[in-house]
Amino acid sequence: MRILKKLPMLAAGALLSLSLSLTHAQEKMTGNPPPSSQLQYRLIADIKGLSVEGNGQIDWQVDAKQYRLSFDMSTQLTGQLMLEKSEGTIDRSGLVPANFLLKRIRKEPVTVVFDRRAGQINFAGDTPAHKIQGGEQDRLSVIWQLLSVARARPGSFIPGSSWKFFVAGHRSGESWTFQVKDKQRLRTDLGEVDTLHVTYVPNDSNNGRQIDIWLAPSQEWFPVRLRFTEPNGDSIEQTIEKIIKK
Q1: Confidence category of residue 8, pLDDT binned at 50, 70, 90
Q2: Can you give the CATH number for the domain in which 149 is found?
Q3: Range of the domain at 94
Q4: Does residue 15 lie within any of the structural domains?
Q5: Fewer Cβ neighbours under 10 Å: the N or C end of the chain?
């Protein structure tokens, strides 16, 4: 009889233990990267008061262990405006960058190295290295890490929420906070798409670009629109034309 009385308690304990284990596993899974894809955009740039059109393309390749990400923007008038590349590994938190390359119009390319063995981020020039604490991203990977977090925790990624990352640029790093502003329905070449509008506004408005991102949950949470606004007022806006799954 004593054994029979203990069975419900044992079952309850086992269920509680299983529940705690699942919760703990879910807490660890803070990033869920999307599948490999190529995103093609229509681009409109406003440079020194001159409006020009062009194309943008994001190539995203990922498997269970590593990723490669490139972002290329160009116009017929200027040629390549900017090229960014990020590559690294994947773990339960999402993207773990190893190298970041930045090439801007009329400038030489620069590279940032995430030296995991030495435990530091090495910037271009004479900038002191940054000690790696964990979770650091580069200026390109942070957008993909943001949507990876959204995919892992869609119930928490809602208007009014904010998400903080340490982001390495080509000469320094700083904390970035993304704010989920509101829900918006956009007209695109894919049809009308429901999105979440997310913004990053630099701490120093005179030193850094503002980023507006429209993430589409129905399209793997990919950014279907991106807008970069420079301190001098120049801007580049890209709207999705095609998503090719690989």
Answers
A1: very low
A2: 2.50.20
A3: 31-245
A4: no
A5: N
